Amino acid sequence: MYVRVVVDAFGQMLRDGTGPEIIERDDGLLSAAKLIYFAPVARWPAVERRALRWVRGRVLDVGVGGGRAALELQRRGRSVVGIDVSQGAIEVARARGVRDVRLQALEDVDESLGHFDTIVMFGNNFGLFGSPGNAQRLLRWLRPLADRIVAGTSNPYLSEDPAHLAYHERNRERGRTAGQLRIRVRYRELTDPWFDFLIVSPDELTAILEGTGWGVRTLLEQDGSPYYVAVLE
Amino acid sequence: MYVRVVVDAFGQMLRDGTGPEIIERDDGLLSAAKLIYFAPVARWPAVERRALRWVRGRVLDVGVGGGRAALELQRRGRSVVGIDVSQGAIEVARARGVRDVRLQALEDVDESLGHFDTIVMFGNNFGLFGSPGNAQRLLRWLRPLADRIVAGTSNPYLSEDPAHLAYHERNRERGRTAGQLRIRVRYRELTDPWFDFLIVSPDELTAILEGTGWGVRTLLEQDGSPYYVAVLE
Fold this sequence. Notes:
Two copies of one chain form a homodimer. By secondary structure, the first copy, chain A, is of the alpha/beta class. Helices cover 27% and strands 27% of the residues of chain A. Chain A has seven helices and twelve strands. In chain A, the strands form two sheets. In chain A, strands 5-4-3-6-7-12-11 form a seven-stranded mixed sheet, with helices on both faces. In chain A, strands 1, 2, 8, 9 and 10 form a five-stranded antiparallel sheet that branches. Residues 1-6 of chain A have low confidence and may be disordered. Chains A and B meet through strand 2 of A and strand 2 of B.
């Protein structure tokens, strides 16, 4: 058996638009979920709808994907720059009406993009920071470039799923935090490279922010859901 | 990365009941589909609804799965024995009301189960014959055990999908028919063993039947779909 490794399985998934999104974790877990990337605001998680009022001014949408957040923010009169490392995402977001999208990694954001009032990372996109160390380094780097970050993540400690608990334990044995996931996107015959994706508890988030110049302004949480949105300033 | 091989990913998928069903092919293709295993008759493929009137008398349901066919046939007054190699399928089919279900492979069907008027293999379950050679051998074996077989399969040559066409070509290079698939079920952290699953065109079906004592009574086909149901006598 062989697996063809072709970059941008994610983009092809967005181009086709049917889903589901299949994520493979490095313990072999496959998870499949309906595509969130095109969801109209009415079908967003309630905490993201609430988070919209924290998004002001000129906005950077990190991991613009299919453009659901960028499009909603444009409708609300915001000026939005969307970035993504997926060529397919860029094409799809542009075709759907996001006016300024760029093929660019979070790591490469600098003053050439101008100053942002708000950086938006919906849909667990806080995870794009990758690891606690990387998050700390990047947050410090982003400090002069933006006034506020509105980022979604999931508290790994609220899961009772045995497969997840075993993965957390395995991570701890390796000196990683529970929510330091290593995952890749699979789509039909396409497989994206493995990447680090970080989910954090509120306590872990606070620890990461230490020394970065950022602090938690508020946490938007939702009963019964591990997903929450952090507003950082 | 490691993959835990645990038999009965399929059964666990049925127990949980949410799907989607993820099938991995040995070229790395992942396909995801809504669970068909609990579908009420109104949501079956039209050709299977038409095929119901060819199912008479005492029935063997091969690959009973979640019991959708067996339950509908029971409702129509048929006496049904369901077999499956998945312990989870057996449990689920029984819990949903299939009265006679047994953990048994198609290969192990013999006169101890009694004589059947009809063997039913809906949902592409003709594929459980595995390969043309195996199909021929088993069909010959089943000849004295049943009067009719009503089996669903898909014509591989109606696909225009490049991934499928490449797979067909690869199969031909290896001396296999286009539709000799090698697949496995993946569900969350569980992975079933690889198995052979055969889909055939009507011509290939006719060739397989030669010398088995079975012939095609009728083919139930559907415009625009590769899926069809063969009635063999």
